[in-house]
Amino acid sequence: MNIKLRLIAMNFLQFAVWGAYLTSMGRYLGPAGMGAHIGLFYSIQGIVSLFMPALMGIVADRWIPAQKMLAICHGMTAAGMLAAGYYGLSVGESVQFPMFFGLYTLSVAFFMPTLALSNSVAYNALERAGLDTVRAFPPIRVFGTVGFIFSMWAVDLAGFQATPMQFVVSGGIGVVLALYALTLPACGISPKTDQQQSWIDTLGLRAFVLFKDKRMAVFFIFSMLLGMLLQITNGFANPFISSFAAVPEYANTFGVQHSNILISLSQISETLCILLIPFFLRRFGIKRVMLIAMLAWVLRFGLFGLGNPGAGVWCFVLSMIVYGLAFDFFNISGSLFVDRETSPSIRSSAQGLFVLMTNGFGATIGTLAAQAIVNQFCQWQNVDGNFLLLGNWTTVWYIFASFALLVAVAFALMFKDKRDEAKG
Description:
Elements: H1 3-19, H2 25-34, H3 38-48, H4 52-62, H5 66-91, H6 97-128, H7 133-157, H8 165-181, H9 199-202, H10 214-227, H11 232-242, H12 254-257, H13 259-274, H14 277-306, H15 313-341, H16 347-377, E1 378-383, E2 386-391, H17 393-414, H18 418-423
Helix pairs in contact: 1-6, 1-7, 1-8, 3-6, 3-16, 4-5, 4-6, 4-16, 5-6, 5-8, 6-16, 7-13, 10-16, 10-17, 13-15, 14-15, 14-17, 15-16, 16-17
């Protein structure tokens, strides 16, 4: 089979695993009595990303080829997710936070490394085929977003948004991907040498020396700051839109009834924006592309603060559209930038470091801070049998938008693109 088609299938399944629960999980946690912990469920993705992606990247660089590590990680991911879903279904309203959260954490701990591992597998396969990763990868990555949308819609239309069945769906897809990953092209590992190595080389931590390069250090620091924004709307957009069910004029609107499908417009926007990345990187460089992403985050949050599911639904739709720029121009472009700035011997470790800074430090700090802000202005309430997160959402979204704007201004002043250095 054509290598591009094989990588398309991998990316489709990779993100279908995530899309099955990532945007709808809050709808289940609230009625299940775990609404106050939504931020913790999303921040644990960041906490495990502090060490798991780097650890799995080290193993993939030195001992177990990346495609096999991808299979192992997805096997463990599926096991944890299926167990969490089964537990939730079997106990119903008696679900206990420690048990459910423990199973969920096990799954997430092995899923987060797959974001970097799947990139490494794809880049390796494309290079072996003699293809330019900057040109060839974005159109392949588009189908990851298609997979995310597919599972979002499936969960919504099947009526699983407020049930633990969404985790069962995720686990089932994970099993398929674990088996499929074993068929992907083999990735190399760093060759053994007879020379004595430092502890950094022995442990495969050479990627951390990238911080000695001022330009790379600034890039990774701002990746962390921007990573603080990544999970906010995944965690709170669905409860926010659903909260309009408490307002009679909005209760029966499409957005409230099918919030996951409305949110999926964000992922549809992704599929289009990914295709723009090669052109924008060549034309404008990494600095301007990252700035576009940061300003898109400002609009993402600000438009949520302005909109509603009725006459103001255009704000929601526009917010979903700019999300494509906000997410892709940061995540995909950042990953390609790291790939081009590092040597093949530390590629998996460098990708793991990028995930650590964004989905690790960034997402952990950002999601916990977001939960504190949401708890300050909103609270879960029982409205005619429906548990809704009600409060001053406008202020919440404007706080997030203000932070994104500050990060954009600071990045514009501090990060130097090679193009700018050449002009200087």
